[in-house]
Amino acid sequence: MAETSSIPIVDFAAWHTNTDIDDKKAVAAKVVEACRTVGFVYIINHTVSPEMLAEAFEMSKRLFDLPQEKKMLAPHPPGFTIHRGYSWPGLEKVSNAMGDEEDRDLATNLRKVSDIKVTSKTWRIEENLDQPNVWLPDDVLPGFRTFMTEFYWECHRAAEGILSAMALGIGLSDEQYFRPSHPGHNNQLRLLHYPPIPAALLEEQSTSRMDAHSDWGSITMLFQDDCGGLQIGDPHKPGSFIDAPPLKDALIMNVGDLMMRWSNDTLKSTLHRVTLPPKQDRFTGDDRMTRARYSIPYFVSPEGQSVVECLPSCADEKHPPKYKPIVWDDYRLMRASMQY
To answer: Contact at 8 Å (CB) between 270 and 39?
Structure first.
C-alpha cells in the first residue's frame, strides 16, 4: 500500500475484475488493516466513473450558485428528525456531542463558533417515507433531480463493494453479510459548499469550517475537489491532526461509529475536521480570502430498525462485546438532536 499523509491507498481494481478469492482477500485485508490502524483509506479504481464525478461537482456548483431565494425553495425542515433539503450557513453545528444533558450544554457552547458551510441533502423519495426528500422545482435547476438520483445509486453500488471487502477482511464467512441491512434506501448523499471567508476568522477560531467529529453511520465515502482542508486525527499522536489532501478521482472512505460498535472497536472511527486549505497561495486579496471548497460525502447506513450488535468474528473469551445492542434509528436521532 502506498501512503498519502499516512493514509493508505488501496487499489480496488482487482476486487471488481478478478474472481480469484485470494486476490479479493488481499484487497479486503488492505482495506481492513487501514480501518484498524487509521480509520481512513483512499480507494482508487472504484466504480464511480471520473465523468460522473465531474458532472456531480458541476451540478453542485450550479446549485450553490443559485440566488438564496431559489435555494430556499427546498429548505431543510424544522428540527432534527428529517435530515433533508438545503441547510443555510449556521443552521448546522457538527460536533461529537452524544445527546445526554452534559453534551447538550456542550452543543450549546459549540454553537458560539459557527460552521461556515452550506449543504444540500438528497434522497430517493420513493423509497423512504420516513425521510421524504426535499427537491427544488424542476424548472429551477433542470436535470438536478434526475442526475442526483442516478448518482446516489451509483455511489451505493460502490459502497456495496467496500462493505463486502470489509466483511471478508474482518473474518466473516459471508462477504455479503452487510448487504441485507444496507439495501441503500437509508443512505444520505450530501453536497457541501464552503464559501470563501477571511483566513483570519479560521485562524482565530471565531469561525470554523467544520469542527472535529466522527461520523454516525456504517461508513462514509467522500469525494473532494482540489481545494484541500480536510484533516484527520493522527493515529500516532492523539489530539493532533494530519492533512488528508485531495487525490484526483479517488474516494476517501472512513469508518463510522456504528461500524466501530459492530466490530467491537476492531475498526476505528476517527475524528476529522475541515480547516484552512494547506497551501498559502490559495488565499487572495488583502483579507486573504480562502478559496471556495466543494465536497460530496455519501453516508452509508443500515435500515432504521436494524439492530447493531457485536459481529461474530469480533468477540471471543478474551474480547467480550463492549457495547449493548442498539437500534440504528435510536442512535441516529440521539446524534442528530445535537446538530440542529
So the answer is: yes
